[in-house]
C-alpha cells in the first residue's frame, strides 16, 4: 500500500523556522518525484517545491525560493521541507505528494498520483 505520512508543522512566529518530513512507503523511491503543496484558507492548492528522486534536482516556487529547502534521505525513504524566514502568508496546510515535478511546479495537483493527509503550519505575526 502506498503511503505518504507528513510530520512536523505547528505554530511558529514570523521569522522562525520549521521542518516538515514526508515518510514514504509502499513504492520505490525512484518511481516518483516528490512534491510539497500548500493550501491556505480560501485559496487554490499550490505547488511550492519538488525533488526528483532519480538525480536530486530541486525546484521552488518564487514565493519560497531562498527561504525553503527540500531534501531527501533515500535510506530513510523520507523527504524534508526545511522552511525558514517564515511569513504569515506561509500559513497553510502543507501536503506532500508523489508524482512529477512538472505537475508540482505548475500546481497541477490533479496530476499527482498519491497524497499525504497534510499538516497545518501557522505563522503568527
Terminal CA distance: 40 Å
Give the mean pLDDT: 95
Q: Indicate the proportion of strand residues.
A: over 45%
* Envelope shape: globular
The SSE order reads EEEEEEEEEHEE
Radius of gyration: 13 Å
Query: Main β-sheet: number of strands, strand sense, barrel status?
Result: 7 strands, mixed
E-strand count: 11
DSSP helix fraction? under 10%
Give the helices and strands, then pairings.
Layout: E1 3-8, E2 10-13, E3 18-25, E4 33-39, E5 46-51, E6 58-60, E7 68-73, E8 78-83, E9 92-99, H1 101-105, E10 114-115, E11 119-124
Parallel strand pairs: 2-11
Antiparallel strand pairs: 1-3, 3-8, 4-5, 4-9, 5-6, 7-8, 9-10, 9-11
Quick structural summary:
The protein is mostly beta strands and 125 residues long. 4% of the residues lie in helices and 50% in strands.
